[in-house]
Structures are given as C-alpha cells and as structure tokens.
Amino acid sequence: MADTSSKSKNADASSPDAGPALSTALATLPGMSRARAARFAKLGLRTIQDMLFLFPRDYERPAPPAKVDQLRDGEPASLLGTISEGEVASRTPGKSVFGAIVENESGAVRILFFNQAFRADQLTVGRRVIISGTPKLNGLRFEFVHPKVTILDKSEDLPEPRMLAIYPLTDGVKQSELRNLAAQFLPLADGLLEVMPAELRKAAAERLREQQIDVVGDLPAIDAALRQLHQPDSDAQMFTARTRLVFQELLVMQLALAMKRRRSTTELQAPPLPSTAMVDARITNRLPFSLTGDQRKSIDEIRADMSRQFPMNRLLQGDVGSGKTVVAVYAMMLAVAGNHQAVLMAPTEVLARQHYDTLTEMLESSRVRIGLLCGSLTAAQRRDVFAGTASGEIDLLVGTQALLYGGIEFHRLGLCVVDEQHKFGVGQRVQLRGGGVAPHSLVMSATPIPRSIAMTMFGDVELSTIREKPPGRGKVNTYLAHDGWKDRWWSFVRQRLDEGRQVFVVAPRVTASEEDEGEDVSSVETVFEELSTGPLSNYRVGLLHGRMANDEKQAIMQSFAAGRTDVLVSTTVIEVGINVPNATVMTILGAQRFGLAQLHQLRGRVSRGRHAGHVCVFTDGERSPDENERLQVFEKTDDGFELAEADFRIRGPGDLLGRKQSGLPPMRIADLNRDVEILAVARAMAQEMIDEDPDLSDGELSALRDQMMRRYAKRLDLGDAA
Ligand code: ADP
Ligand code: MG
Predict the structure, then answer these.
(1) Is any atom of ligand 1 closer than 6 Å to the C-beta of 468?
(2) What ligand is nearest to the CA atom of residue 640?
C-alpha cells in the first residue's frame, strides 16, 4: 500500500541513524508531548510529510525600514538606526520611564518604554537596532512607545525582509511553532516522489503563461516548490510554487475525469440516431416557433452526439424561461424518428403534466404515442403504461421519479431526458435501460453553472448552454424593499390586478413554526390569512404548499393557470417550471431565507409573458451583511450566469450544488473560484494526455497515474485501469 499523496524514497530507510523520515509521526519526535501532538493532529498534522503539505494561508511581508521623513503619524513602520542618547527619566518603581534617541542619516526619533528599566542596559549608546511600531508625532519629533526592537550586531548587514508564512492555526498552536517545524523538516522534502516529470512541468509553465498566468521559469520540482511555499524568496517565486501545486491537484482531477469521459464514450454502446436534413426539417416544422440561435446550436450539438454509437452524456443549461423544453422535445422526436423510444423525467407531477400537454399539443395528428407515468395514476392506468412501454406502443414517456421505481421496461429506449436536474441532486444519475444498449442522456438544468463547476463537478459531461432569451419577453423589474414599503407595494399590486394580471406571493414557511425559535419568519398560512382579509380582500386568493395532497395542489395550480384565481400565495413549490404567462407580479417574503439561485428561479415565474414583470423582495428582521450583499446582487442582475458567478463568490462552491453530492474530494490547495484559469489549462492538457495515451501507461507518468488512481479510481469508478 502506498502512503499519502507522495510516497517517500527514504521512508523505509531502516538504518538506525537515518534520522526522521517523511512518514515519521510527529508524536514520536523527541520532546513532543502527547498534548502538543494532539494539538497538531487537530490541524491534520500527524506526520512530517503532513507538515510539509500544510499550506500557508497567507504571508507576512515585513515592511522595509523607512526614512524618518517617510513616517506618518499613526502608521506602522520600522526604522533602522543607532542609539545616540539613552536616559532613564524616572526610576520610581511602577513608574519608571526609559527614553532613547534612534538616529540615522535621515533623522532621529525617540523611543519610550514604561516600567521596563532593563531596557537601559540593552539599548546602550552606539547600538544598531531596528525598531518597529506605530510612530506618534510629539512636537517636532516622532515617538515610538514600546516598539519591537531587534538589536543588530555591529558588523551585521541589514537582514533582508523575508516573507513569513502564516499557517492556519488551532487553539494552543503558535505561528512560530509551525514555522519552526517547517524549517526543521524542509530538508526532507528531497525525499518526496516527483509525480510531474520535468518535461511536463516545462510544458505546463508555457501553457500557463499563454493564459497570462505569471509563473517564473518552469514549474519547480516538488521539493523546491515546498521550500518556496514555506519560506518564499519573493512573491513571484511563491506564486510559481503555489501554481505548481494547484496545477498538479487540478491536473490529477482532470486526468481522472478525462479518463472517465473516454471510457463512458467507448465502452458503452448506444443506438446511433442520425438526423438527416429531411428529419430535421420534419421536426422543426412541428415546433410552434422559430428557434433562437442558442437553441439551434444546442440542438446541433445534440444531433452530433446522438448520431454516434456511444451514449450522449450532455447537460443543457439555460436560465429559467430560456426555452430548454423545445430542445428536449427535438431530441425526443429525433429518437422516435430513429425508431426508438424516449423518456422525459420531471421533478414534480405538475411539471410532468405540463410537459405531457406540450408534447401532446405539438404532436397532435401525428402517429407518435405519448404516455404519462406519475404517482397519482390508478393501478390499472399504471399497468397500461407499463405494458405500452414494454411493447413499444408508447413512443414518448413522460413521468416523475415514479419512473425509477417498479422496474419499468422499455422496448427500445434511445434517449433519456431529465428536466430540472438540480432538483434531483447531482449524484443521482438516472439509470434507465432498455433494448440491451445504453440510451443517450440529456439532462437540463436552470441553475447556471459557473465555469469552474462545469469543469469539475460536471467534468465527465458535455455542456450546451442557452444564454439568449426567446424574443418578445417583457423585462422583469426587481425591487429590494425598504422598511415601510408594504402599503405602497400592495397598492401597486392591486393596480396590476385591476389591469387583469395575476400575482404570486412567496414565503419560506408553511406554518408559523417552532423551529425558528422566536425569529419572525413569514409563513404562507399567516400571509394568506392577512392578505385575504386585508390588502387583497377584494381578489380571489389561493394557497399552495407542499404539504397538501397531490390532487389538491393540482387543482389549485390549474385554477391559477386558468385565471380563476388572482393571487397565489405559495411556498417554493411554484419555483419549478410552472408556466403562467399572465402572472407578472411576485412578492417574495422572508427573502433572506432563500439562496440566489432559488430567488432567481422564483423570478423566472414572472418573466414568461409579454408584460413587464415586477418582483419585490421583503426580508424578515435585520439582514446580515452576506444576506444584504446577496439580495443587492439579485436586485441588480437579471442574468442567471452572472448570478451564479456571484453566488459562487459569496458562498463558495459548497452551497451551490452541494459539494457532498458531487462525489469529488475537496481541493486541498486549489481554489476553484480563484484558480479557474489554471483549471482550464489543466483540463486541456489532461484531455490531450488521455487522447494520446488513454490509460496513461507511459512509464514516466506512472507516479502521476498512481496518485490519480488513489484519489479518484473509486469515486469515479475507474476500476484498476489495466
Ligand atoms: P425553460 O428553459 O425554463 O424550461 P421553457 O422551455 O419552459 O423554458 O420555455 C419558456 C417559454 O418560452 C415557453 O412558453 C416556450 O413556449 C417559450 N419559447 C421557447 N422557445 C421559444 C422561441 N424560440 N420563440 C418563442 N418562444 C419560445
Ligand atoms: Mg423547463
């Protein structure tokens, strides 16, 4: 068994005077108490090697000594000079004062110490010192009270200001301790196994520079990189060293993903479903509108994928309302044209029915047969759908998660589409098979994915993106409410209602509940009560939430869609896919409870028609700075991609898609937000390396391959890649 990230050459040196090895436990070092070792363990430091791979989170950069005329009142500075006078002004115990003058060619300052009489013996006239502290102007002279003093030897040259590593700390561990450990063990870095051959380091440095990433020279070997990371000679060297480690971490990940992509394309068989110009024209003619440029581009990408004999694995991302459905419909019709079945899975029954209706309408008077499978079917209806699917009588099947249970069998399944993929969780890959081959797969998501996430969590998937909105959309105005806006807002809402528009009101909770412990959180039940007896009492107000029975929800949605209800008070159950073009106004209460992606999804509900949409966002109680930033971004930006990048910036990747679901290990040194350019280079190089050598069998790369397999083989199911 290999040990952690880099196997050491001298780890198994058995001679008794070999000294500590990389794998030596810190706890066994001389002078290491059990308590101290336990504190280090809290930082993840168990062995010497762990210490070498403890990455500083920042660096201290001591300012170079200033000249006297550069000093500013109250601004920290350091100064090099000679003590020219020193005197004890008072010796009264408890009130002693020692003062001295420090002088250099640029002038003189005074230093003062209270109750540190010993200073008089230290700071004798003629001593060279560096003082640092915060000068205060006193009359015409700057004074440093209790500066930090470094006494220099007469002969000593000015020590170069060195960058000092700042490590992540835990209780009871001091910076200086970690700096000392690093200094003590850095010589052992020679023993680390190099996973990136010199040639690769050189090529990578060149590619990085092409992307304006300022690395100096070739990427350094691992030992040199660690030295520059713990004890940098300069910012440039430190940056280059860090880039090497970041690049390595990302390259290892991207190699694994590239290998995964390659295998899923070559190992599985899918039915080739080519589309001729005639098929294309026939399908396009059935669509109720002409396609936008991005829709057409996505469709062409899908056509190319589906014509191959290995499964398409594509993610179609596009903002709410960008028109993804029609792209999916196209792909499904292409499957049917090629004599195969297609299945479309939606996260809710409401949405599944909506898709079913859309398809039925578009395929009216064609021979295509469409089935619907969802939880509310009777046993007999369900049996029919199962039978029709198995016999091939049903061409297109639409359904909810119910599709995943009960062992449905397809006659000849060619395509599997999953709508609103983010609602199912990233990890949950849909496994539907039929006819002995793997179907093509298209997943759709309205949560735009920042570039870095697309290259990592979805690294084994191809991506199509719709950014362009269909024509004729009204604009959505978003307002972040201030205190006391409620009356004005409800009066605005009444005006829109009187013009015939419909209105959503969204709140985070169903009932005013105990779980919020005294905090005031808006609930739909309370709001429904307040509105229907108060400001909106003259209108038909409906209530919708997830705790209702399915057919009740169904009836309420239908009533709203048909215009029999004016106002729908709802939890986020309306977030997903509902299409009511006449609803143009939305009030979001308790908005601090929602993430940016979710708010944006909600806003998408009122941008469907030709009337301008209006969204007003209210919060309960005080907003934290983070909440405030999020809501301000939401008010300013209507572009889902920009919001996704902002969300990523504010909250980090963890929250965005649920890191736990991604199946990828957390990064140790790379920061996907900051290092996206390095990631792009790593991805491109990994792809080339795998194209050239699919199993990475080049002996020069065996250490790199080992590292990749250790981190990813199990997670990505790479087997042992013989
Ligand atoms: P989403 O991407 O959120 O799933 P939909 O596919 O539901 O969006 O489309 C939103 C609305 O836009 C639908 O009413 C649809 O009919 C309409 N639409 C989609 N594409 C076009 C287009 N190219 N031209 C005009 N309307 C379109
Ligand atoms: Mg949709």
Answers:
(1) no
(2) 1
485 and 434: one domain?
A: no
DSSP state string for 324-370? -HHHHHHHHHHHHHTT-EEEEE-SSHHHHHHHHHHHHHHTTTSS--E
Residue 233 lies in a domain: no
Verify whether ligand 1 is closer than 6 Å to residue 120 (CB atom): no
C-alpha 475 to ligand 2 mean position (Å): 19
Ligand nearest to the CA of 421: 2
Instruction: For the beta carbon of residue 127, count every other beta carbon within 10 angstroms.
Output: 19
Q: What is the C-alpha separation between 16 and 31, in angstroms, rounded? A: 19
At 199 the three-state DSSP class reads: helix
Tens-place pLDDT, residues 457-494? 666 678 888 988 888 776 789 999 987 888 999 999 99
- The per-residue pLDDT for range 154-169, each reduced to its tens digit, is 665 666 667 889 998 8
| Contact yes or no for 569/544 (Cβ under 8 A) | yes
**Kind and range of the H or E run holding 466:** strand 462-466
CATH number at residue 403: 3.40.50.300
- 446 ligand 1 Cβ < 6 A: yes
How far lies 322's CA from each of 293, 444, 469, 676, in Å? 11, 11, 5, 26
Please check whether residues 439 and 491 belong to one and the same domain: no
Residue 191 lies in a domain: no
